[in-house]
Amino acid sequence: MSNYSKSQSIREGIWSLIVGLKITAKNFLKPTITVHYPRETVPTDKLEGYRGHIELVPKPKDPFTPKCIMCNLCATVCPSGCIKLVTVKEPIEEKSKSGTNTQEDKKTAKKKFKKKLVAFELNYNYCSLCGLCVQNCSVKSLRFSKDIYLAGYSKEEFEYDLLARLRAKAKVKSAKELPQKNSEG
Amino acid sequence: MLDTTLDSLDLRGDFYTRNFQPHPSENRLILNMGPQHPSTHGVLRVILEIDGEYIVRAEPVLGYIHRMHERMAEVKRYEQYLPNLGRIDYLHALAWNWAYVGAVERLMGLEVPKRAEYIRVITCELNRISSHLLWWGAYLLDLGAFTPIMYAFADREIIMDILQRITGSRLTYCYYRFGGVSQDIDDKFIEQTKELCKYLRPRLKMYKDFVTDNIIFRKRVEGIGIIETEILRKYGATGPVLRGSGIAYDVRKTKPYSVYSEIEFDVPSYELEDAFGRYLVRMQEMEESLKIIEQCLEQLPAGDFILPKAPKRPKPPAGEVYFTVEGARGEIGVHLLSDGSAYPYRLKLRSPSFSNLSLFPEVVKGTLLADAVSILGSLDLVIPEIDR
Amino acid sequence: MISLAQIPIPLIKIVVGLLGILIFIGLNGLACVYLERKVAGHIQRRPGPFEVGPHGILQPIADAVKLVAKQMITPKGADPILYWSAPIISFAPAIVCFLPLPFGPSLQNISINIGLIMVLAFSSLNVLALCLGGWSSQNKWSLLGAARDIAQSVAYEIPLLLSMLPIVLLTGSLNLADITAYQGAWPWQWLVVKQPLAFIIFFVCIFAETNRAPFDLPEAESELTAGFHTEYAGMGFGLFFLAEYSYMVVGCALATILFLGGYQGPVAPGWWWFLIKVYGLLMVMIWVRWSFPRVRFDQLLNLTWKWFTPLILINILITALVVKLI
Amino acid sequence: MTKEGLGHVLEVKPGFCALLATGKVGYKKQLFILPDDLLNVVKHLDECGYALENITALEIEEGFLLVYHFNQWNNGEKLALKVLLTDGVKEIDSISDVYPGALWHERECFDFFGIVFKNHSNLIPLLLDPKENIHPLLKAKNKRQPLAAIMPESEKIEQYIKIEELGK
């Protein structure tokens, strides 16, 4: 290497250090970009599309019952097996033709039982948020919630009953709407 | 002043140290770099035999986060395996998504709609940029500069915000489905992505001024970790490691899949063969990715984002398929064998980092400890991908 | 019973001075921790410590409490005497280094005519401490860190000493107060104007001597985990930490006295000028740390043997000639 | 039963490789060879400038099938070597002398299937716990499928070629 190019490379090297210092100094003067979490939260428009845990979608007319038809597809498709539907069979009250409710009538009416959803259990600890259950639900009874600030002290706190959650939400909502209606009325 | 009682303690090492063949001589030191070491990025462990600070021999030890993904594939149905893919290489999750989904599609003969292909290219390239950004920051962290990773994260955050709106997750994406993607992109996404492209170019220029031209950085990477083509071939290295040695092999270009053949972009390669060459390739690739994204946004056709007739719970016919895509770290391959049932018969995941790391012992011989860190970083390893 | 008058005045002076210096070192440690973290934070566009007190002002105290309260662990197989003596050997000479520094016109603890040599002699003891700490803690990373530290300190001691010689030649004194007095209040009267090269080399050598990035090789965390203090916990680590910041201040103070006119300033000369200059230099050290990658070990040694030592020797030669001729 | 499903595959003669139809598999070529010919073929591929990409194995009814993936950089053409280990044989030559990159792939196969690679310099577990001797990818007897069921292409042998003529 000739002396000239060597001295030039030294000069360039030292200049590069100064450029580096300049860049850090510039950034030092710029405002910070941190979100101070407990006092500030991420703005809602940045949370668009973010997936929280799944939740049940209520029927349009009845906010207390989900659209779910208990087909169990979500539970079988789930890769982690974290969905469990608890159902009971409830007899459909059907008036027997004779009018009397005898023992034999009940036996013949065995096929006319109706499944009823008692609980929709989600073990959020194992959920990988792949969205297969939402995508596969044939009646669109599942969607992602927006509960993203979740924290707890134990594993058990993340085992949800989505049906109870839906009802509690609907209750709060109707309680809010009720006084409005009253005032309107 | 060593305590003689030390011999009674079990200091003979564990299984891997004892099997570090041939045994080192008396005047050399065996050093366990990792599994908890700041510059092995996760839980890689490298047994080093050192003479002073010179490395005589090195042997990586794997398996600290081995999860047996290949066995998991055999006990899960095809669609149930999808979330696993995002967790193999968490930095370029969408490439793994694509490799698997593509393999199944090829086996079933599914024709993916044009729009879905474009969406896949856009999201995959966004993910590649975010992966390279993280690598850039982490590599500089290895070399002792603390600030670049914070700048890289600030930019990466924007990409993650954009992808989050569409895919629903920020890191372990599970977005691609058989025959398309799970959600269509909208105008806001397109607008945000265009803004990102405009924003990132000056940032990349700033990175160049800040780091690439820096004399201390240059001295740390130039001429370090020279990998000859012959070694690359025998170890099957791919990706930027290969292109840093002057071989312009890129699956996107050499054997185009999806719509890559319709897009104009260069495959950067440098014949430097050293860590700096690999560094330059990745920096250049980010700009190429931006180019690809911009072209795709312009050419984006209307149509379905997923094949309407695509089976949600597929049962591919019996057969074999080997599908490769270009990930941020190299060629990702999925070798899938089906016996016609709803469960894969055998799924082999060919991870690029695995092959890239396997040449590390060859390259690191005779270098300084600080250079070993520099070389290890320049290979861009993601340990979950190696261990699978 | 000894009456108070019987105690010699210099002894009282030294005891009071030592107490003052200890307080100063403690406060300096707190201030430096806060400064370092805040500067680092803002350079990286984050706020730095923020939660303890307003703008995290009490964070250093919380850190100190944590360090003091932590259990002091001696690793299995370590030599306990050497292991625990190392942080003390590292910290104690730092106090002595402050004694001859003239903080202000009348703020000098002991005015001795070999003040400069005294500071250098005691600050060199740090090498021994790091070597002992690294070697006795029975850890391979610590051992490597200690080995690096010895080579680095020995190599950089030479240009550091040599870069002070031109000043001594010019001023004709080793007394730090005299050197300060030789310079004037205004920046063009300072010695940095006459000796810019010596100043740059001196300042870079301080980086290496105090193990600051980009020359923080003995504790290079991405290579040697934490280098010589890998095994230290609690106050053992705390003392090393405090010593590092003290030596940084000593180095910056020396640079101020030798090159930047000490406590003299354009308006209202006094100890505040001294502190402003010292902490200004300290800011530069912090700024550099968060801007650059770390150099490699052989490059570090190349820099001193191939560049700094010959350059400073030429500088001395020219200075000597000029002093002789004028 | 075991040998019926193999079709023509077992008719491969020493020194020859059977070129199979590729269909949509994704290789340019796929070859069936005898275990004894492996080293010769690999040496020949090395001379032709192929890069080793991957080594994988699977358990089938007949035994084990090893698949070696090779790649060419200039055109991205892939070549698959398939070697069948029948009659309870669990040993095969290591190709690590020719392709040192195979060391880890072979250790992985040893981990997952217990296949022993002869002349391997350090055949110790790579990913699994060395204390426990389990091979997780071995299938239960009733789950194993015959080769023809999972690789329909292997039934159609297009031609037999000599090892020396492979690269052309």
What does the model show?
Chain A has a single domain, classed as Alpha-Beta Plaits, CATH 3.30.70. Helices cover 36% and strands 16% of the residues of chain A. Chain A contains 5 helices and 5 strands. In chain A, strands 2-3-5 form a 3-stranded antiparallel β-sheet. The longest helix of chain B is centred in the N-terminal third of the chain and has 29 residues, at 114-142. Chain B has 16 helices and 8 strands. Chain B has 2 domains: 15-61, no CATH class; 69-387, Cytochrome-c3 Hydrogenase, chain B (Orthogonal Bundle). The model of chain B is unreliable at 1-9 (pLDDT under 50). With 388 residues, chain B is mostly helical. With 168 residues, chain D is an alpha/beta fold. Chain D has one domain (19-160): Beta Polymerase, domain 2 (2-Layer Sandwich). A 6-stranded mixed β-sheet of chain D has the order 3-4-5-2-1-8, covered by helices on one side. Chain D has a two-stranded parallel ribbon with strand order 6-7. Mean pLDDT of chain D is 81; it is low at 1-5. The chains are: A alpha+beta (185), B mainly alpha (388), C mainly alpha (326), D alpha/beta (168).
CATH fold-level topology of the largest domain in chain B? Cytochrome-c3 Hydrogenase, chain B
β content of chain B, as a range?
Answer: 5-15%
Overall number of strands of chain C = 0
Mean pLDDT of chain B: 86
Strand order of the largest sheet of chain B: 1-2-3
Write the layout of secondary structure elements.
The complex is a heterotetramer of chains A (185), B (388), C (326) and D (168).
Chain A: H1 3-29, E1 54-56, H2 73-77, E2 83-91, H3 103-108, E3 113-123, H4 132-136, E4 142-144, E5 159-161, H5 162-184
Antiparallel strand pairs in A: 1-4, 2-3, 3-5
Chain C: H1 9-43, H2 59-69, H3 80-98, H4 115-123, H5 125-136, H6 140-171, H7 176-182, H8 191-194, H9 196-209, H10 221-224, H11 234-259, H12 271-289, H13 297-325
Chain D: E1 16-20, E2 29-33, H1 38-47, E3 51-60, E4 63-71, E5 78-86, E6 91-93, H2 102-113, E7 116-118, H3 147-150, E8 157-162
Parallel strand pairs in D: 2-5, 6-7
Antiparallel strand pairs in D: 1-2, 1-8, 3-4, 4-5
